[in-house]
Amino acid sequence: MVHAARSSHVPPPHPNLSRARDCERCLGWGTVVSRDGEHELCPSCQRAPGTAGGPVL
Question: Region (Disordered): which ranges (predicted)?
């Protein structure tokens, strides 16, 4: 069975690539793919400075 990519009405997140440059978790992309197949901001490099884990806004 052939599987096609799912279309989403939500645009992909826009990471800060300068923060992602040396990240080992996302390999410099700034996003990771969740278990649901959705792109999310990398929790390792895209956190706002001084926060406990929220994405950079």
Answer: 1-20
